[in-house]
Specification:
Blueprint lengths: L17 E4 L16 E10 L7 E9 L5 E9 L2 H8 L17 E11 L2 E10 L7 E4 L13 H14 L20 H9 L4 H31 L22 H9 L11 H12 L8 E5 L6 H14 L4 E4 L3 H16 L6 H4 L2 E4 L2 H7 L8 E5 L6 H7 L5 E6 L4 H9 L4 E3 L7 E9 L3 H14 L4 E5 L14 H9 L4 E4 L5 H12 L5 E4 L12 E6 L7 H8 L7 E9 L6 H10 L4 H12 L23 H7 L1 H19 L1
Helix pairs in contact: 2-3, 3-4, 5-7, 6-7, 12-18
Length: about 650
């Protein structure tokens, strides 16, 4: 049974979005604009009709308990004759003698406005006698919540249902509420939320119920994900770590590779932050449970050096490793780095090198079909390029998983925020880098082109990368694609075009010509989003930038100024300046931090499905038991931080 969308019990269909107090007003508020709606007793002074078939315009007077009468007016649509019959004084001898006598009144929900210092009531609706003095919840449109005449069994069923859902996880708090919360069981809190005595008590009960549901749900998520990490046959580092008397890996073990790996050419030795990341990842494979961590660091901070150091350690200890790259050119590039800086440097022998496979997601198909042996460690480089299903498939049957990224996807961002997935974060590059990002409107394309022409003229040793969302957009003439744009740029400058259909050998040749200064403008699709390392790239232009995700834009921006210094990123937005796309790009342009970009992406796209079996990595799958969990997380940042810190300490204790 899903925790997400129960049909019953009805109290969990949705929390109210607000409340309307139908308690009679005892006095008028002080003059200060329009006030909240309150219930007043209507005493008819007169009724007049406009010439309209569907609305009634009434004017009258409202008598307050203190005896004061003030003018009032309202326009009711529909039920014209019913309203007239109710409010018009009856003829004592006529057929309507059973209607209210003159001077008798009804209750109305009204707001108070002050005109020239005098109060005036704007009537919202009539209030039936049986609702006077109550507080009525307001539910989301379409929720169709129907409160049964005898709701008590429903609340008891609601509480029992929640307890039954989370019984196996042991998540539900069996004790009383936290300090400062209203007393009572969860069922009593739900009752007060849906049938409150007052607005104050309803809001307090709602806060307490939301807190209890959210915290229990987070515990449930943690238990779910932990269960997925507890599988038999997990490989340990080193292999004898689980034997009696065997010690944990020596702290100098990883340092042996940290000192040597990428030590040539000079200046490529690992930083203290990279060394600490290697140690943290290796320690995560000693506890007898599956490691599932994320290695995070901004573009160009040396993530590849870290995971290759881990790979060298694992295969030297007898493990088998699969490194998955999102594209074939990037897989080839990592393969070359591995051969040069690990194998040829003598850090591992030929037998260990044979236990490393560097491939694209096609390797997962071979693994699933049984055409390859299971791996002990799977490295998913650029995690934003893979689905949850692919990640789970990579971990089959008992592999450790290391995800690598510069910008966490929304789902991973929230799971890391809660403390479910540990994140190892690298320090920024010590090389100063200043990438200046500017967004142009479509009508300013001429200014952008003039800037590129001036830049190429003033910087003869630099080249420009131009990225488009499509390779060949023949079906949509509104989009300029890489094929047509390459021909356009080629008439003005020495240009090259690469995309997903370009053969690998041709891609390599074109990139070599860019590095040699022969090609000044490289036109591409997102094939060059990751892994492209050309020191001559000083600027990047993104066409139709609104069609790219923020993580993709950040990766594209990271292609320039790889060796430090000043770089430029120019984005051409095809939507209106005041539209949501422009606002999103403006927020992106205002920051250069990958962490901030990931947070903007999470807020914009939301966190998706957080359950262990959830496959949605962004978006809103709907409320959890009527609770907007993501909004709750944003309101309880301190509690989430403390909860995540406690979990991190517990994981480190297990590893040590």
């Amino acid at each position: 049974m899903s925790l997400r969308s129960p049909v019953r019990p009805w109290p969990l269909a949705a929390f109210p979005i607000g409340y309307v107090s139908l308690l009679p007003a005892v006095q008028l508020p002080e003059p200060a604009g329009e006030h909240e709606a309150e219930v007043f007793e209507w005493r008819v002074a007169s009724v007049s009709w406009r010439f309209s078939p569907s609305r009634a315009v009434m004017r009258g007077a409202v008598r307050l308990p203190a005896g004061m009468c003030i003018p009032a007016g309202a326009i009711w649509f529909g039920a014209r004759h019913e309203i007239a019959g109710w409010l018009t004084p009856p003829d004592p001898g006529g057929p309507d003698a059973g209607r209210p006598d003159a001077g008798e009144g009804i209750h109305v929900l009204a707001t108070v406005r002050y005109l020239d210092g005098q109060p005036w009531l704007t009537i919202k609706r009539m209030v039936p006698p049986w609702e006077v003095g109550t507080v009525q919840p307001r539910y989301p449109r379409g929720s169709r919540i129907q409160i049964p005449p005898d709701p008590e069994p429903g609340y008891a069923e609601a509480e029992a249902w929640i307890m039954g859902q989370w019984k196996d996880a042991g998540a539900l708090d069996a004790g009383g509420p936290d300090a400062g919360e209203p007393d009572g069981t969860l069922g009593q809190l739900l009752r007060e939320v849906h049938q409150p005595r007052s607005v104050v008590s309803a809001l307090a009960a709602r806060r307490a119920a939301e807190d209890r549901l959210a915290r229990d749900y987070i515990d449930h998520l943690i238990a779910q994900h932990d269960a997925a990490l507890t599988v038999p046959g997990v490989w340990r580092f080193p292999p004898d770590a689980g034997k009696p008397g065997a010690g944990k890996p020596d702290a100098t073990g990883p340092d042996r590779f940290c000192d040597l790996l990428l030590a040539t050419p000079p200046g490529r030795a690992l930083s203290p932050s990279q060394r600490q990341a290697v140690q943290s990842i290796l320690c995560g494979m000693t506890a007898g449970r599956r490691l599932w961590k994320i290695l995070s660091g901004d573009v160009g901070c040396g993530k590849t050096a870290v995971f290759l150091s881990v790979v060298a350690q694992v295969v030297s200890a007898g493990g088998r490793v699969l490194i998955i790259e999102p594209t074939r050119p990037l897989a080839n590039q990592v393969q070359n780095v591995f051969r040069r800086d690990v194998c040829q440097a003598g850090l591992i022998d030929a037998a260990a090198a044979a236990r490393v496979t560097i491939d694209t997601v096609g390797a997962l198909h071979d693994l699933r079909a049984g055409r390859s042996q299971p791996f002990d460690l799977v490295v998913l480089d650029e995690q934003q390029k893979y689905s949850v299903a692919q990640k789970v498939e990579a971990a089959h049957p008992a592999a450790h998983v290391l995800e690598v990224t510069a910008t966490l996807i929304p789902r991973s961002q929230t799971l890391a925020r809660i403390g479910i997935i540990p994140v190892v974060t690298l320090d920024p590059l010590p090389v100063p880098k200043d990438i200046r990002t500017v967004c142009y409107r479509l009508q300013e394309a001429g200014q952008l082109l003039a800037w590129v022409e001036r830049y190429l003229a003033e910087n003869p040793g630099q080249s420009v990368l131009v990225v488009y969302p499509e390779r060949d957009a023949k079906q949509d003439d509104s989009i300029r694609d890489a094929e047509r744009a390459g021909a356009w740029w080629g008439k003005r400058y020495p240009a090259g075009v690469v995309h997903g259909a370009t053969p690998d050998a041709e891609v390599t040749a074109i990139l070599d010509r860019v590095a040699g200064g022969e090609i000044r403008v490289l036109v591409a699709t997102t094939l060059v989003e990751i892994g492209l390392d050309l020191p001559s790239l000083g600027a990047v232009v993104v066409g139709h930038a609104e069609r790219f995700g923020l993580a993709t834009l950040h990766q594209i921006r990271g292609r320039v100024a790889r060796g430090g210094g000043v770089g430029h990123c120019l984005m051409l937005c095809g939507e209106k300046e005041d539209g949501p796309a422009w606002d999103r790009l403006a927020r992106f342009a205002a920051t250069a931090s990958g962490e901030e970009v990931a947070e903007i992406d999470r807020v914009t796209r939301r966190s998706g499905d957080l359950l262990a079996e959830g496959l949605i990595q962004h978006g809103d799958p709907g409320p959890i038991l009527g609770l907007d969990l993501e909004a709750w997380l944003d309101r309880n940042v301190q509690w989430i931080g403390e909860r995540a810190a406690a979990r991190t300490r517990a994981i480190k204790t297990q590893e040590l």
